[in-house]
Write a structure and sequence with these properties.
single chain; mainly beta; 7-stranded mixed β-sheet; Jelly Rolls
Length: 150
């Protein structure tokens, strides 16, 4: 039996003010190695911590455990709070921003597992900005895309 313990995973801090800890997947250091899906735990810093505007080939679900956020999926924008989950279809751009005064805790799961380019792009400073080139704009009134600490 393999048990993944969030408290024992150092994780990574991203420029858009979030801390991500992979629990399941193929990446080195993830305690539960699986090919079919990936799962992790994320904390977004208060007032603007974010999973920035991006897309990927996998279908995905974000589950907000606690906190208050703004979720953008394609041309839609809505508030999401603890206890709610949102489905993110393959190739559709999406973004989650903490709009509360407390950290937002969430989990993600995507299938199939494997690498998602936006992590690497954000760390390298090459994440395409919303509305530039082939990247669509954010929905009207959405929180601005954050790809680096202010």
């Amino acid at each position: 039996m393999i048990i993944g313990d969030i408290a024992k995973i150092p994780g990574r801090t991203f420029p858009a003010r979030r801390w991500t800890r992979g629990l399941v997947g193929q990446a080195p250091g993830q305690p539960i190695q699986a090919k079919g899906f990936a799962m992790g735990y994320v904390v977004l810093e208060p007032r603007g911590g974010q999973v920035p505007w991006h897309n990927q080939e996998q279908e995905e679900v974000y589950m907000v455990l606690e906190g208050r956020g703004e979720i953008c999926v394609g041309s839609e924008k809505q508030e999401i709070t603890g206890g709610q989950a949102v489905f993110l279809p393959p190739t559709v751009f999406h973004q989650l921003t903490n709009i509360g005064d407390e950290p937002l805790h969430m989990m993600y799961i995507y299938c199939p597992g494997g690498d998602v380019a936006h992590w690497r792009q954000e760390l390298d400073g090459t994440l395409p900005p919303a509305g530039v080139g082939p990247t669509p704009p954010l929905p009207p009134g959405a929180q601005p895309q954050c790809a680096k600490k202010p």
